[in-house]
Amino acid sequence: MNFPGELAHAAGALPMILQESDEAITVGHGVLFPFYCGYTRSMVDQAARGRFEVLDAIMFGDHCVQLLGMADAIRMKLPGTRVIFFQLISSMNDPWTQGRSEESFAKLRQELEEFLGRPVEDAVIRESTRLFNSNRRLLRRLYEMRKEGTAPLTSVEMQHIVKSSMIMDKAEHTALAEKLVAGFENGTAAPSRGLRLHLSGHFCQAPKPELLAMIEECGVTVVGDDLFHGFRYISTDVPEEGDPIAALARWYMDRNTGVPCPTRVQNNVDWDAFLLKAMREERADGMIVLMAKFCEPHMYYYPEVKEAFEKADMPHLLIETEHEGMALESLKTRVETFVEIVKRREAALA
After folding, report:
1. Which Pfam families is this protein grouped with (predicted)?
2. Exposure string (b/e) for 231-240, b if CB count within 10 Å is 16 or more?
3. pTM given for the model
């Protein structure tokens, strides 16, 4: 989730965030434990089936123990592919966090230089930073217009926009995003269709489009999210002035303050407090939490979210998702019931 695409772009590479496949997991079953999350099992399955042989190098992060196991399994399956392991300090507000983060980004820069056989100049990093910031600002503008009602984009459409920015050439994607924003900029606000909802969760993998579509078919308008394939990915810009490595470290720290993540430890911010604040700003009537099955960081933190929302008398619904097929009809019944409960609650408070 903290992949510094700017640094890889400045090194002359095409940075891509690997995506969970829609295909059923087959070969990967013999490589990774079945109680690992769908994202890690899908990544290993794709590696075992040769899907990643087109890549020159793969960089792994350390957000959870399952990602560590995934990295080892893929390294075993792809012995000819350069594997870079990028480890960032997870304690966010200690006196040494900024310095340790700078060391990690500097080491990654050195590894990229050695691998690609060319220096990664400060000026080029700043140029890539400006490009990536422009892209993020455009997508954040879409989120603002979506909240205002002038950009009536569905959750599936927003996911396509964000996911494509994770794998496309950033300049090409930015040009397309500029046209999209311009097309909505002078639009008039449309009334929300049904309840206004916030979607939360799913840190590494994208929620299945059919699940997102089903939720909106239940008579709701999704007005905000903190999904990784959503606002979490584009929430924070990298400072464009000064030392670029220090700027990346600052970005790493700032983005957890802006949209806290359960994989990081920061005593002065709370994810549950962020969620309640976001919902007030979005004028959301409720929240649906999408929890990937076996996602340990989310499982550990969810009780705090649940307690905070109950204390604030804010309705929410937890849906556990998985890579394998989900029973959408039964889930739809749960969502419809939740929507009806929220509607009756709103009517009683009116």
Report:
1. HGD-D (PF06050)
2. bbbbbbbbbe
3. 0.94
